[in-house]
Backbone:
């Protein structure tokens, strides 16, 4: 029983990471109906930036904040410079742009930082959480970080004029322009926020997985499964999906198929959701008049 | 006194297709101008052109300033509120959020609060439904919301595309009454496109008749109202 609880809690901790990255995917999906396949690699790159800053002598939280800020800026720049010119291109072209971004970020990281794995520090104490044998402080911290991000995002979208404008722009770009919203900047802002959220996810996952350019490959797959399960049009659903995927993935890996085959669980889940309920648990089914 | 909106030699294009062939019209300060015409004559296109929503050639001046080439968001910031065809409400947002978005570009928060009350006074039903999703409103209520949202900008020019579309006659009269009051009490100028020509001529001071992208007749509403050919083709008596 004790072992089981440990596995569930460990699953919740990785689930928090999936939830964060899923949240980043949803941010961009909501505004553009596209899944940014490069989201994981962008998060990985952000984590390298944080690593460089820490190595340059910055205290952890200083590096953390700066990396999040730089990632936000980087996300905005990627949207303005790379996505904007192909905004109205066919979906397939955009998918290829996303994959290109994925490869480019991966290669640049490998080129600058090499492919040897690096240790990345955790900001949380190196001991069990409050003397609890079930969960480490880092895992608890990662869960807390995810929840805090969700709360902040909820408050932002629900109660600030800018959040309202971003929701409006995602829903009805034409009417948004008619009330004076600069819609294309809202998109760039969405990209920036997604990149910043991804940065947090990267920095939370790196202490456990170690830092290397391919660190986020599997994580992105789980995050994608999480977003689909919760409903890719629903931020809350994506977070819920993240925790569910984290726990089940861990339990399935431990008790049924073993660690080596764990990743295939994500694929099964993705296909399963798409077959049974494509809109996910909390997502809204899109209805088109014909 | 110079006109608030002066359009001259306006041409508009949808892809390679030319929809407007050099039209000229104006909206006086505090005046109401209506554009009449059959379906496909270019009425909606004209309104979209004024608000920078399509590619145009020609001169559009708002309060003496050239606005052709500005983005829609910038034109809105000058005080032009557009109630588009089909209303353009944000159906997933609440009534209150829709109105809030109308005032998105404004900084004067205390004034905005007063304008909420003003809109709720014009349209009491919106106050009752302020927390409700806009998509759940009836057609008439959505039209009120669209006009209310436009008023939240405190516009100098209100651009209206078929405000009577799909509404019961009683509702139409109510909405036109409110538009008349807004124009008279607050001096908001209007550019109106309307299927119902007799209603439009009753409200407007100037009228222009469009046919396949060209102005074929213009003048004060009274003159057009009494014109034989207009009466037969558009007023139906």
Residues:
């Amino acid at each position: 029983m004790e072992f089981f609880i440990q596995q569930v809690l460990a699953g919740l901790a990785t689930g928090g990471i999936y939830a964060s990255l899923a949240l980043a995917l949803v941010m961009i999906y909501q505004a553009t109906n596209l899944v940014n396949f490069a989201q994981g690699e962008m998060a990985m790159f952000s984590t390298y930036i944080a690593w460089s800053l820490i190595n340059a002598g910055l205290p952890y939280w200083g590096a953390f904040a700066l990396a999040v800020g730089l990632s936000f800026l980087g996300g905005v720049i990627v949207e303005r410079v790379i996505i904007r010119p192909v905004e109205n291109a066919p979906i397939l072209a955009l998918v290829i742009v996303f994959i290109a971004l994925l490869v480019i970020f991966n290669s640049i990281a490998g080129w600058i930082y090499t492919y040897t794995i690096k240790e990345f520090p955790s900001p949380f104490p190196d001991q069990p959480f409050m003397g609890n044998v079930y969960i480490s402080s880092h895992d608890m911290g990662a869960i807390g970080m995810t929840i805090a991000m969700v709360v902040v995002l909820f408050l932002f979208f629900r109660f600030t004029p800018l959040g309202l404008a971003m929701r409006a722009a995602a829903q009805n770009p034409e009417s948004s322009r008619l009330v004076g919203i600069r819609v294309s900047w809202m998109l760039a802002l969405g990209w920036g926020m997604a990149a910043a959220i991804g940065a947090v996810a990267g920095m939370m996952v790196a202490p456990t997985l170690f830092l290397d350019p391919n660190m986020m490959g599997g994580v992105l797959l789980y995050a994608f499964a999480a977003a689909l399960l919760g409903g890719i049009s629903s931020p809350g659903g994506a977070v819920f999906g993240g925790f569910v995927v984290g726990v089940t993935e861990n339990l399935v890996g431990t008790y049924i198929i073993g660690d080596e085959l764990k990743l295939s669980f994500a694929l099964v889940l993705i296909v399963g959701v798409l077959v049974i309920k494509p809109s996910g648990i909390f997502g809204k089914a899109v209805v088109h008049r014909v | 006194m110079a006109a608030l909106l002066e359009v001259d030699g306006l041409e508009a294009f949808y892809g390679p297709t030319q929809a407007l062939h050099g039209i000229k019209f104006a909206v006086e300060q505090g005046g109401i101008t209506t554009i009449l015409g059959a379906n496909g004559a270019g009425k909606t296109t004209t309104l979209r052109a004024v608000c920078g929503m399509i590619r145009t050639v020609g001169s559009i001046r708002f309060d003496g300033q050239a606005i052709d080439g500005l983005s829609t968001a910038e034109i809105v910031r000058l005080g032009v509120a557009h109630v588009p065809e089909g209303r353009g409400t944000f159906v997933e947002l609440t009534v209150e959020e829709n109105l809030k978005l109308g005032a998105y570009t404004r900084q004067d928060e205390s004034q905005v609060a007063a304008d909420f009350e003003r809109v709720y006074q014009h349209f009491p039903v919106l106050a009752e439904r302020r927390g409700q999703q806009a998509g759940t409103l009836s057609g008439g209520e959505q039209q009120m919301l669209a006009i209310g949202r436009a008023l939240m900008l405190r516009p100098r020019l209100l651009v209206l595309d078929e405000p009577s579309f799909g509404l019961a006659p009683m509702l139409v009269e109510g909405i036109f009454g409110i538009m008349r009051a807004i124009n008279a009490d607050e001096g908001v100028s209007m550019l109106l496109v309307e299927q119902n020509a007799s209603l439009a001529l009753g409200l407007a001071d100037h009228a222009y008749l469009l046919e396949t992208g060209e102005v074929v007749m213009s003048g004060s509403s009274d003159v057009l109202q009494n014109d034989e050919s207009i009466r037969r083709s558009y007023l139906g008596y």
Observations:
- Residues 15-215 of chain A form one domain.
- Chain A is about 75% helix and 0% strand.
- Chain A has a mean pLDDT of 89.
